[in-house]
Amino acid sequence: MSDNAKHATKSLSFSRCLETVSLSLFLLAIVLGCAQDKGEQEVASGDPNDAPYAESAAPVDAAPVNDPVQPPQQRPFSMEIVEPQLGPEGNAPQAEPDVRYGYSDPSETAPLPKYTPRNLSPSASGSSPNLQRSPASDMSPYSQPKSLPSQMQQPQAMEAPLEQPRMMQAPAEMQPMTAEPELAPFQEEAASDDPFDVVEVFYGTDRAPMVWPGSVLPHKFHALLPAVTCVILGIAVALLLTKFKQYIIAGLTVVVAVSGAVVVGQEGWVQYHKYDRFLSNDSVVYGKEQGDLELGTCKVSIPKSHQAGQLESPSVVHWEFEEKPEDHVMLMEVKSKKEQEFFDMLKLRVEESPNRDLLIFIHGYNVTFEDAARRTAQITHDLDFKGAPVFFSWPSQGELLGYVTDRGNSFWTASHLKEFLLKVHQHSGAQSVHLIAHSMGNRAFGAAVESLAQDLQQNQKIFNEVILAAPDVDARVFKEKIAPNLTGLAHHVTLYASQNDVALMASRAVNGYPRAGDVGANILVLNGIDTIDVTKIDTSLMGHAYYGDNTTVISDIYELMQNARMPTQRQWLRDISSPGGMYWYFDPQYNNAVTRTPASPPLR
């Protein structure tokens, strides 16, 4: 036999020896483990009196077993840690219950109930309407701190425990309390677990409803036709460029075409799902054509993650192709109502509000019905407005190139807007009517005001706070015709203007005359109207939607509507003199800052 064969044989023998020893050790470990388990089972199944760590069944006065090995928290609850106190009559000692760990009868050996923390929620019987809203972390950042009712300010230790111990009677003052009123807040809190809030908004509109043949939408892939067309055109142009050996430009063309297709496809896909949702819940869809005056209500979702001044919408950046109420400010449904039903619902909503008031919003140029509903709900939520939110939507085209058509429709709708405002004044039962008009909506409102002033008695106040944001109205027409009539119909008027307003710059170029929302040499300072310049705090791209986007402006509107504070009482405003008189501007240090003061009764 060769040396290599001998060496291999020895190695194999040695390996077999190691395997035999390892197997023996493994079997020995298994036998020892089984024996140990058997011993533990015998101890566990044996007589409790023989077990060294068993709970003692002796009376309470017997000395407990002290085991240094057992941790203190594992010992059974006993009367040693409860100091006896005299009962209410001074005869029999009674044990004071521990509200953290419960209470057990010392005569029984049953195991203690598992620790359950107490719910310290206040009773809903004395809560204010604000407590029925979403939790504090999800509330509007402008909500005011409310003082707690007197019954909620008592320490929790004075309240009756949820379960009365068998050896203790509740104090006399706690006897009338029952379990029924304590269940109400639990039901309210369970209802607020939704990831979004719903704001019901009332509306009036003279838009014509849209109708689909057979109430059926085209196939959903029709929404992607613009995107497909964009890609095909991009590829065709790129192929044409490659024939001229312009490969880099051809590649960039394909990238731009694909990017544009994603944006266009996302918009079409979102629109398709929106209209499909409206058809499924029998909602009315209003377009951009002129129609008759209609009334109704709609529901808008406000996500719990909503940021003040934002209109959350599906974004291509976040790869969102469908609206979700938990993530977006979404128009959920639109229901048309008869006039009597509409005003009955509006009056009931006003009566339920603390101040019996309502807020009317009139949108401007390039706004759809859906945009107006979403903006109204967002402003109502951010202002923490408790009254009835209402908006009037006139037939704006909702397109950037529809300015000329919108300008004509803003004057056409004046008669319908006047009728709507007059009916709201007469049938809503509101003690205070606030109004916000934006951009070109001030044209329709100004024309309606002129007609209302002629029909109503002189100086009859039908509005409380009127806010004109970036009014796209001829400055001379506003000064000579609108302002004198408006100050007679409203208790207070505020005009917001910005030098950074790109939309008003374009309007001035198209119309050829200064606008009422201009700042600078053309700024309007009129008697009975507070003019406020927002230039120093408005840093947005267009500088036109600051009334709903800038939190400082929202805070200022809050002070106007909730507390009716004059400009001298709002610490973020500074006065400045001009040839036409005194006006106000925002201090830049308050830009996008929450600057509210506690709610107080209106000063006007």
Plain-language structure description:
The chain is an alpha/beta fold. Helix content is 36%, strand content 16%. The protein has helices at 3-45, 180-191, 225-243, 247-280, 339-352, 369-382, 403-412, 414-427, 441-455, 475-489, 502-511, 546-549, 551-563, and strands spanning 84-86, 93-95, 196-209, 286-303, 330-337, 357-362, 388-393, 432-438, 463-469, 490-497, 529-533, 573-578, 581-586. The strands form two sheets. An eleven-stranded mixed sheet has the order 5-4-3-7-6-8-9-10-11-13-12, with helices on both faces. The chain has a two-stranded antiparallel sheet with strand order 1-2. Strand 12 (573-578) and strand 13 (581-586) form a beta hairpin. The longest helix has 43 residues, at 3-45. Mean pLDDT is 76; it is low at 4-12, 38-191 and 597-604.
Describe the secondary structure blueprint for this structure.
Blueprint: H1 3-45, E1 84-86, E2 93-95, H2 180-191, E3 196-209, H3 225-243, H4 247-280, E4 286-303, E5 330-337, H5 339-352, E6 357-362, H6 369-382, E7 388-393, H7 403-412, H8 414-427, E8 432-438, H9 441-455, E9 463-469, H10 475-489, E10 490-497, H11 502-511, E11 529-533, H12 546-549, H13 551-563, E12 573-578, E13 581-586
Parallel strand pairs: 3-7, 6-7, 6-8, 8-9, 9-10, 10-11, 11-13
Antiparallel strand pairs: 1-2, 3-4, 4-5, 12-13
Helix pairs in contact: 3-4, 7-9, 8-9, 9-10
